[in-house]
Design a protein that fits this description.
- Helices cover 4% and strands 43% of the residues.
- By secondary structure, it is mainly beta.
- The N terminus is likely disordered.
- It is globular and about 65 Å long.
- The protein has a single domain, classed as 5 Propeller (Tachylectin-2, Chain A), CATH 2.115.10.
- A hairpin with a 2-residue loop joins strand 23 and strand 24.
- The strands form four sheets. Strands 2, 3, 4, 5, 6, 7, 8, 9 and 10 form a nine-stranded mixed sheet that branches. It has a five-stranded mixed sheet with strand order 1-14-13-12-11, with no helix packed on it. Strands 15, 16, 17, 18 and 19 form a five-stranded antiparallel sheet that branches.
- Bound molecules: beta-D-fructofuranose.
- The site of beta-D-fructofuranose has 14 residues, from strand 6, strand 11, strand 15 and strand 20.
Length: 425
Amino acid sequence: MSGDDGPNAPDGRSAWTRDHATALRREETNVAPIIYPPSERLDEGLHVWDTWWLRDRDGSPAEVNGCRVIVALTSSSDLLPGKRHDVATLRYFYSADGESWETGGRVFETGMLGSRQWAGSALHDDGDVYVYYTAAGEADEADLSYSQRIALAEGGTISPGDDGDGVELDGPWEHSVLLEPDGEWYEREAQSRGMTYTFRDPWFFEDEDGETYLLFEANTPVPEGSDACGGDAAQQEFNGSVGLAHSPTGDPTDFELRPPLLDAVCVNQELERPHLVVRDGTYYLFVSSHHHTFAPGVEGYDALYGFVADGLRGDYEPLNGHGMVLTNPANAPFQAYSWLAYDHGDELLVTSFFNYFDYDRPSMDDVALLPEDEQMRRFGGTLAPTVRVGVDGTRTRVLGTLGHGHLPLARESLPSDPFEGAADD
Ligand code: FRU
């Protein structure tokens, strides 16, 4: 955490190294309790996965007409869970108490870019709404492609619902491509050597000095014949990064690429949904990643990983020595994914979605081989219990859970029973 004097690369990026990652372990401090299906899903007609708050410029959850609002990737719950990414559609939900949620509807009806929309963030600024999202694939493509661009929909407004209750998110939206990979700091699709490249999951972030940024998931180009990873070509295919773009004027529609904050070359291919929590000048950078995206020789987990520095461009060091903050129990290793941490007093609260609860099943690949009704039965498709995490400098500890999709605002006190949400609620 030594800021500008740290051992960062010349362009300021920090590294998550194999030395760090080979120390990854499930420990009492980083394993969430087992999740049981809730009595009601967020919406019985929908699969719901990656989810984020509508937030004000300073990062705190927005309140509109007494409601907090979330945006999520959704699909019809009639679909096989594995097919949902191919048709992902943004929908919003709102709640007056942070526990029971109403479905607001689709965020966009028309005009969205790509053949489907993947994760992003949503900014509420002076009554205007900006939705940053990943435009995946090409509009009207015959065969699904995996190209990715960072897109913006602007022009939205949010107001009380017609009957005075709840909220309504309305267009007309104007969609544009904000960022594409430059091929130098950020890998383009044609440069990708292993799994598909990534360029997605934009996260709006306003720093304490008022400077405005987007964080996003990307990859660092590693050309063939490079001496990275001691020249090991198989390891070089794993090149995830946390990208950064800056808005010189603070205009939330105008960003320029900057070098990545951190990368994980030789370690991991996907540093998903990067986001920051800043407490007293300490920057906590979080990403989600999968067991199957770690490089050969590193045993990782579907988990929330975190890094800490003393400035946005500081020298990020992995929390807990290796980086793992929160993972699933060994007998339900894929029960939750796509974690998002936010500040709540002395604690962090971490939301995620309830994924495959394939108890005692060692590999997620097995799930796709099951009969269709078994695949459906094993998919949560709703918000997971919120996890309470304590933070002390560079160390974190799981403290307990709240109910499925219970998302308190900062001013709301937390239940004294730390494991309120551990059992079926
Ligand atoms: C994480 C993720 C995101 C992406 C979305 C697609 O769960 O892979 O990176 O935007 O899912 O469904």
